[in-house]
Amino acid sequence: MPAPQLVPGRVHDVRSRNFLVGSSAIASARPPPGSIQEREMAYIVLVEDNKDVADVVCDVLRAEGHRCFVIRSKAGAERFFRRVRPDLVVLDCLLIGGDGLELAQRLASEANVPVIVTSGDFERAEQALKAGLLCFQKPFRLSDLAAAVSNLLSESRAAESSINLARRSGFRPGVRRGGCASPG
Predict the structure, then answer these.
(1) Is there a contact between 91 and 79 (Cβ–Cβ < 8 Å)?
(2) Helix (H) or strand (E) holding 121
(3) Are the beta carbons of 157 and 130 closer than 8 angstroms?
(4) Which ranges of the chain have pLDDT less than 50?
(5) CA-based angle 6:10:11, to the nearest 5?
(6) Which CATH number fits domain 40-157: 3.40.50.2300, 3.40.50.300, 3.30.390.60, 1.10.10.10?
């Protein structure tokens, strides 16, 4: 059965189906719903224009049990992120077609997606750090990247669990229950 195309103007959850973006398949066979493998597996997008670097980084992330999808340009990444929210993004600062650092800052603030920036340029790496982004300057140890991915995913999942718990309990910011707030 062929994978469905992304529908323009619609946000898709990559966990729910197999998708095709351009000519490359983005997902493969899924683990059983609710299984430990499904809960632990992250959907990571790597935005990297160097094919050799992308292959090596994705191999490491897949070995850690994650799904890794590669996008090779800033324009392709922007189109993809309008439709899909991954669990984490690893993004190169210098991309074909534009500034990866600007895209990383936008994803981290507006889309609330954990982002790791990579850069072969010292000045760009410094800019990423000053912007509050986690940055790996190339060359870097793949084991360090894998550890950072694990840590960011754990933090993100813990924050998401807290938000979901608050929603289920009926918590509404700024709303107090059981009486009036006293001044001062």
Answers:
(1) no
(2) none
(3) no
(4) 1-38, 162-166, 173-184
(5) 90
(6) 3.40.50.2300
